[in-house]
Design brief:
transport, Amino acid/polyamine transporter I, globular, 13 helices, 4-stranded mixed beta sheet, lysosome, mainly alpha, 57% helix, disulfide bond, 476 residues, endosome
């Protein structure tokens, strides 16, 4: 096909056995594997290029297209024995995609930089992805660690998790014998640790997903309960609106203002319960299992490390801002700092209008994200165990009942999101944040005979910190 007439064009459709990345009108395209495409013939009048100039397919190209299409039907979709060889498959810039409407359009995604994100978009995407429900427990974590210790722990954990995330990003480049451009981090774990790395990464990934789902369930129950109380209280006192006096309004404004007044005195505080904050922060800074995917879409790949560092800096500043603002503005005296709840919104009464609005928006957000988390957990678990993400309706029903049951039980008997975040964060962080990045770096350096004692000791210390972070959560 390389010697076709100049007016010939090659048309491709995917060869996959399942639908992967369906696009508009269910057009499926996976740019990572050109060899998985097969040509097919379309009438010349239906070929449309970028400039709407009618292109023609030569008889030779049409015959080749039909021949490869016939060969692809001789074997099962999973069998790649009769896939067109590399010299037959056209160059990426010559690929077209067929539309059910009768036209074929040139694939714009092959254009250099097309469909990619700028550095600014990448930074904000990482920042938004990392910020989650953990932010509600940051003030409580600072209270547990003490103000001075809490500030130091947040900054140190930000730096440590940033370095480990940097090691995750660089892990693929440490493998020179295999093309790793399409790999995700579980693929890197499987390369170094075999099936153990694959299944252990699955286990800890499920811990983070299921832990997040349980936290979401507890918070949704909390937000729905307080929202109901607000609505009930509002309806109950409607008949008193005309009886409200100027003095009552003045008193209400005074109390509202006093809540946000800074404390009358401040003493730097250090407590030895800071591991509770490190457990929360491990999940708060956790993005290691999907950072490679996010950075793949960065238009300037040479800026990945810079953009990642800026995003982590913004996340750290956000946690510091929320933690310091709530902790410092808490009215102490008359109340004690120990009154700060694990979800700091619980410190506001159900009748507070601003907290009511915040709960409504958070409830809506969690109701939309919760099914997505459940889908990801189901796909990972059932896909690895049964080889099918939908083996039967019975298996899916059992999985959903397990997740809902765990959420209901935790909401009824252990409604403290701080503890759930601590345990799930320390558990999943043990593998994805501390052990895997450091161990993979040590192994790769050893294979290249570049491992030195300082590097070995430093990364072994990171692994020990991860183990200690998990173990100490059970004694807090």
């Amino acid at each position: 096909m390389a010697n076709m007439d100049s007016d010939s064009r090659h048309l491709l459709i995917p060869e996959g056995d399942h639908e992967i990345n369906p696009g508009p009108m269910n057009i499926q395209f996976d740019s990572s594997d050109i060899r998985s495409k097969r040509p097919f013939y379309i009438e010349p009048t239906n070929i449309v290029s970028v400039n709407d100039v009618i292109q023609r397919v030569s008889d030779h190209a049409s015959a080749m297209n039909k021949r490869i299409h016939y060969y692809s039907r001789l074997t099962a979709p999973a069998d790649r024995a009769l896939i067109a060889p590399d010299h037959v498959v056209p160059a990426p810039e010559e690929c077209y995609v067929y539309s059910p409407l009768g036209s074929a359009y040139k694939l714009q995604c092959y254009t250099e930089g097309y469909g990619k994100n700028t550095s600014l978009v990448t930074i904000f995407m990482i920042w938004n992805t990392m910020l989650g429900t953990s932010i509600l427990s940051i003030p409580w974590g600072i209270k547990q660690a003490g103000f001075t210790t809490g500030m130091c722990v947040i900054m140190l954990m930000g730096l440590l998790t940033l370095y480990c995330c940097y090691r995750v990003v660089k892990s693929r480049s440490m493998i020179s014998s295999v093309d790793t451009t399409t790999w995700e981090y579980p693929d890197v774990c499987r390369y170094y640790f075999g099936s153990f790395g694959q299944w252990s990464s699955l286990l800890f990934s499920l811990v983070s997903l299921i832990g997040a789902m349980i936290v979401y369930w507890v918070l949704m129950s909390n937000f729905l309960f307080n929202t109901g109380k607000f609505i009930f209280s509002t309806v109950s006192v409607l008949y008193l609106i005309f009886l409200v006096t100027w003095k009552a309004i003045r008193l209400g404004f005074h109390l509202e203002f006093h809540w946000f007044m800074p404390t009358e005195f401040f003493v730097p505080e250090i407590r030895f319960q800071f591991p509770q904050l490190t457990g929360v922060l491990t999940l708060a800074f956790f993005i290691h299992n999907c950072i490679i995917t996010l950075l793949k879409n960065n238009k300037n790949q040479e800026n990945n490390v810079r953009d990642l560092s800026i995003a982590y800096m913004l996340v750290t500043l956000t946690y510091l801002y929320i933690g310091v603002l709530v902790f410092a503005s808490f009215p102490s005296p008359p109340l004690s700092k120990d009154c700060i709840e694990q979800n700091f919104l619980d410190n506001f009464p159900s009748s507070d209008i601003l907290s009511f609005i915040a709960r409504i928006f958070l409830l809506f957000q969690m109701m939309t994200v919760y099914p997505l988390l459940g889908y990801l957990a189901r796909v990972q678990l059932l896909g690895h165990v049964f080889g099918d993400v939908y083996p039967s309706i019975f298996h899916v029903l059992i999985f959903n009942l397990f997740i809902v049951g765990a959420g209901v039980i935790m909401a009824c008997f252990y409604p403290n999101i701080g503890g759930i975040i601590r345990y799930s964060g320390a558990a999943c962080g043990l593998a994805f944040v501390f052990i895997y990045p450091s161990l993979i770096y040590i192994i790769s350096l050893h294979q290249e005979d570049r491992l030195t004692w300082p590097k070995l000791i430093f990364h072994a210390f990171i692994i020990i910190l991860g183990l200690a972070n998990l173990i100490v959560q059970f004694f807090m």
